[in-house]
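Instructor's aside before we start: the two examples that follow are unrelated to each other. I chose them only because their records fit on one page, so don't look for a connection. First example below.
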Amino acid sequence: MEIWNQFVKQNELTSFTYNYDFVTEKIASDASAIVPIIEDVLEKMAFLYWDKYHEMADIAYWPYKEFKAVESLDKWRVISKKFVLSTDLKESAQRMVMAFDDYNEMAKSSDILAIVKEAEQLMEDVLKKDTKEEAFEYDFIKTPPFHVVEIQKISERQLNKFWCEFLVHHELEAELDLENVKSKMSYNTSALFNSISKLLRPLAFTKMHYLAAKQQVKPLAFSELQSKALKEVWAELDAFGLPTKDKAMAHQVIQTLEMQVTNKNLPKPLVQSTFNNFVYLFKSLYADALEMLDDAVEEEPVQQESVVEIEQPVEVAVVNDIKEEPIIVAPTTVGVSKKRVSKFLQQSKVLLTSAPDAVVHADRFGSLQSYMHVKRPIEEKLVQTLQHAKQQQEPQLILLCGSAGDGKSHLLAYVKETYPELVEDFIIHNDATVSKSRTKSNLETLEQLLEGFNDGQTAQKNILIAINLGVLHNFYTYEKEKQQFATFRRFIEDINIFDQTSTTNESSVMPNCHVLDFSQEKNYELTKQRVESNLFKEILMKIVAPIETNVFYKAWREDMDNGIVTAAHLNYKLLQNERVQQQIIQYLVYGIFKDKLFISTRTYNEFIFSLIVPVEQEQDEQRTAIDLANTLPNLMFAHPKRSTTLATMSNNDPLKEKSAAKDEFITNVLLSLDVYGYFQEKFGDMITVFEKPIKKAILEKKFVELAQFGIRLQKLMSDEVSTLFNSYVSYLYSYLTGDEETMGELFEQLEQIVFKWRGSPEDNFIYLNNDLNREFRTAIPVSLEPAVNEDFYGQMQGETLTRFVPTMKLGFDEYFIDLDYRLYEILSSVRQGHRLNNLEASHAMQFEEFYNAITKKSQLSDNRLMIVNTSNREKMVISKPKFSKSKYEVKKV
């Protein structure tokens, strides 16, 4: 609260309106009314973040006027993705954007409170004074020449940047960065010393090259150091003039490493001093690098590579056909360094939701949007509706509905560009989630815009509005409370737009109003054999097509020709494989059916980016990231925290499947004498794409990681995600088209599941309870008559189905279940004898209720009851005869 009010005061905002107490109280009573105020605050804060951080962002070239032009929420999308912030601030900004997106969809006041909470944390940062010293320390490339380097004065920030460059040049794991290594000191000393031992050898190798360059002597080759123990490696540096203090520090570090092998519980002071001495060695290396750059500046003022050149030829070591080239690490310095900029990485970033080009404006349709445009059925419908509207005398209202990022703005921009004559008589309102006035909410703005379509009013102009379904629902509720727009509200009720099973978009109540709903346009199509997605396929082809008009391919090809090859370039090469493309799309559709994944075109583009570009390359383009962990199969399944889409992919990771083929693959990798040869045998020429990271992993003996990579790649090269999913798709198609023969197979399975749900003691009998600990269990006879919901069954025709609900409403007698894929998967496991855990049982609660309904009906229609002794399996049937003096009749079965 104090931080919020301090921000309001410091930025001269109206103290009463923007006061924390007023804002939070208003959220509880009328959240929508407070949104414009919060957007004002976020707008103000976004400009402060621009002033403070944009020079350090990887969009520093982006003009201020472009940043100023986008909506406040889109400003924060850019800030959360592109600005160099601390982890806490970056995550806070991302949570704030997500909360705003959720509010736009669901209009919950709790989302607005979450936005306020995250905003406070972000305010605290911009309220701090940013001293010149801090700014100077961050950007150490501006450091003046060091003729005498004082190691103690090297800041941690400078060291951290140099450390990262060291890892990149030696192609070491990203987990070996300074912060990660330091964090291990407090909770895992074994991991700490393991990291130090991995770094000591390349550190000694680099140190030797600096010392050799100073003395104008030839350094040793890496192969000469590789087979030696660390103690011997550092002893070799004596011949090159290793300073006494460096020698003592290295000796202490190596001695502690040897002690740790036999004693895992070393004293904390010893662990701390060892880490400090190791850091000293890195600082000393950094000081050498600065000295070498000083000499380079004095001798050659023009630009040169940021690698210390040595007159003598440097030997290249070959180990198992993998070349290790010695690289001298030096921090980049203005006028000296020359970074190789990857045009492909720069171009790929337009796929991110935070990219300036990702958020399309209805009045701007650039060359990239033109190239990426994919024709969709809703485009044709919009054009037809506009053509119809142009012929009408009465003003028309067109609502283009959907969700955030599904392409509404893109479609509007395309139509304005391609069919300007159709929209010249229209008022176009592109974003109904925002207000155009500081004094009015977005709903009040909509009310004013649609005033001519209110009862008793006469519209003067055609209107086209892009609006999220959540906002439309809010407007409907808002006007219902005010008893306005009665005809419009009846129209909304008639077409039942908030019910996703509805397919009606027109109503006689308001014939001049037309609704086109993106949410009714599936991103996939259903055939008898499988689910396809022409939309996802065409967008992906726009990205990977090997043609000169493809800006992504052109940039990739130019990089490859210039020798710029990173993990992203290798992943892009694999993504050009048609089978891999098909399987990636199948996994997306599988996630939509199984996990109810929602994926818009915007999130789809970002998903493709995340398959190409590893996280460390996204953060630092100078890193090659050529490592097994950064290959496409691992990026797809092993990064659940990177996005919601990747979280779904992780849920369906092939490593989580149980199969004999998977076990066989792991065994072969672990036991093979020629692992790379085995990969060649399994994948053919395709494996050459990842030759370098595979051979590197073989050298490092990472056979488990190799097996995991291979299993994931093998799945991406296969023809299906799940056999069970293919069966469900076939049944769904048969249900929608009315194929009785195939549906008969499904009902046979469903009947088997009913008899296995709690068990069956006898043919045509099912248990009433599932308690196996009871002495006696009761069962009743059932007769099951298959039934379907006639409103949906057999109502579609054609080889390819596009507009449908991906569930089947079916059951027995008059009782139905909504059978979606998730439930079908659980029930199929029951049919195979699997006993459900608590989570699975909760997902199958609908079937439990269905089962209970069947048993109640059976008890009313049949008076027999079977008693089963659980210990000896004896069975007796109790019944009440219709024409007998006996009350009950008991028969032993």
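Example two begins here.
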Amino acid sequence: MHLQEQNRIDENYKKDKDWLHWGPYLSERQWGTVREDYSVDGSAWDYFPHDHARSRTYRWGEDGMAGISDKYCNVCFGVTLWNGKDPILKERLFGLTGPEGNHGEDVKELYYYLENTPTHSYMKHLYKYSQNEFPYDCLVSENKKRGKDDLEFELLDTGIFENNQYFDVFTEYAKADSEDILIKITIENRHEFAADIHVVPTLWIRNYWSFREQENKPVIKRETKNGNDYVSVSHEYVGDYNFYFDQADRLLFTENETNSERIYGTANSQPFKKDFFHDAIINNDFTLSSTKTAGTKFAPLYVVCVEGKSSVTIQLRLSKEELENPFDSSFNATFSKRIAESDAFYAAITKSKNKEHQQIQKQAFAGLLWSKQYYNYDVETWLLGDPKQPKPPEQRWEGRNTNWKTLRNHDIISMPDAWEYPWYASWDLAFHCVTFGLIDPDFAKNQLLLFTKEWYMAPNGQIPAYEWSFSDVNPPVQAWAALQIFKNDRDKTGKGDVNFLKRMFNKLALNFTWWVNRLDTNENNVFEGGFLGLDNIGVFDRSHGILGKGKLEQVDGTSWMALYCLNMLEMSLEIAMVDETYEDMATKYFGHFVFIAEALNQISKEYVGTWDEVDGFFYDKLVMPDGEYIPIKVRSIASLLAMVALLCIKKETLDQLPKFSKSVDWFKKHRADNLKFPVIQEYAAGGDLLLSLVPKDRMQILAKTVLDENEFLSPHGLRSLSKIHKDPYNISIQGVKYCINYEPAESTSSLFGGNSNWRGPVWMPLNYLFIQALVEYYKYTDLVKVSFPNNATNELDLKQISIELSKRIISVFEKDADGNRPINQLHAEQYRDSNFEELILFYEYFSGENGRGVGASHQTGWSALVANLINEIQ
């Protein structure tokens, strides 16, 4: 099939045309981020709050609603609204800071990513805007009253959408060309009576000049041609553009500069500051506005009365070209064409005939693509400060990220989401890339490669975790993700990108060594690692709460490293098929995996492993300086991760790599002579080789536990903590009492900054890993039938179980017989409304009991894996 969107993707990566020069790269929240924090104590939320955002210039980025920017965020466009009642313009999304929320930071808005294509040739966004005053104070005060045992107080709980007294604001973009962007803003009044709205589509330039010397200050200037107004944009880095718009009530100009009087109580040199539009529109005072015809921030103002149950559309266009008639018949024709091309592109991607599944996939892809953000953070410059600004406090050199002075981020990166997590997390991103591999494998490859660059990866080989603490340790899933993308690409094209694997392998070898040297302090092949992205799923903070000088040997840390070994082994085998110099590396990682497997499973007489023979479970082990070891008997998904580390090496591969095959034979004989554990699970001369961290007898035991509805199996996937811990698990260590209990949704624990939520809910990425492991076991073992659920009379093979588990996860997004989606359980009635029923949010995680959405409401990043699951069950 001839797909225009695929042609654009190909053009872009061949560098024939830069289709990705403009995209949805504008963050939804720049305030309250580490980058903008120049405080003494690192209190990012307090140093730059939402209340400052409309008046204070950002240093490292910009934010806005439904916005776009060039790839370096120099020129930005976003939608600003005012209903005539709010105390401020709706210029950016509002939410609670970490200290204000009873379950952590939380966006308090209703918006949806409806569509997006890989080249952003067509994008569609929906924001729901109340016709009554936005309840800023109510949201803050009510959530302050609520404790961790209470639900969060959400925007829908305030009642402002009752009687359909709101606007649906649709923002659409269509690219006529890579530098010609068509924009439509459609305001639909869902109420039966007419209502007024101010629409303020805003174009502005990121401020460098207030921080460093800039030879030519950019400018947006009013122009007139044939009696029609438009503005020109002149920027020394981006070039020249023209911004066209439907005839407006007023044209507003100001400067993207800090209102020092409002923020610092010092006099302004002139009145045209970042928040000038707020004052002029809300006070209906345009006395000064008519005197200014150029600036660095511009908006045409539309004061619109929208009749009940009707809509109004505003047209705009940002183009390199000088256009005589920017809104001729080709304008709407381009939108129609791009929408049809988007439909055709996604029809070719999906394997499902189910219309609802197709809609879930399309919105999952949309959220993933809308969360591509410009991210700028040069740590050394951030620490030193800028020449035109006050010098930062010296105390910052003892604070956050000071050992990451080589880190210089200045790229488009896939974010977990654009509001609650407007910064990358390295292991989240690896999962994002697996879904990106379905729609834009080149972007996925480039994202993984980016994090191995010398200006990302530390000189010692550590990959940065996330901006709140780059030195935290995220699970090493980059090699796994690279293999998923490689295989998917090979399946589609018939040829694997071995050069990509080589580039990843060479850098990840450095990262692997960092893990071994830093996180196996007892040098016994059982690893530590701290919270490992799992927000302290144990009884204490695994990063900072370990007593004395004890070391916590973690099943998940060890399992991640076993998986890492197998991933590196598989990568080296794939490369060795075309470059024999990598065959030695395959032997290296094979041997290391054997040692890790032996250690975890309690092989030698000198070492007590983590497997509990009585309980039939792996447990973390606290090793004290005097040699005492204390098992931490928490039944969590962290321990079950041992099940996902497996690899089958096909006979054909072994035949083509005789040197590696000979090493396997030697290892098998040598270890068999010294140890009892058959770490090489399946291997006969001339056959396939199966490597598994968990031996078959223990796998059978764990499989029953995983599939037990009284433990891990929920109606909507695998829980992160066994339901058996409804009766809390208690342990006393050196006189200190610790406790953990099963909590299916929000956690009441205050571990990890008060946002510790791995105590029962269903998490998409780990479920995805388990499903893949089940499929792999099905192919290569005689573990054929297992009760599903456990203790049921029916038995299924592992492939069938993987499909049933996938269906349970997918079901959180599906409508039931009554038209309810489990994710919407708290607001089911609202989502049965015709203007809500097809709208889907992709939450951070899901209740272990009923599947309702919990945590970040727009974390399509790793929850987009549902799109992969839908394809894989077909």
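The CA atoms of residues 202 and 299 lie 4 Å apart.
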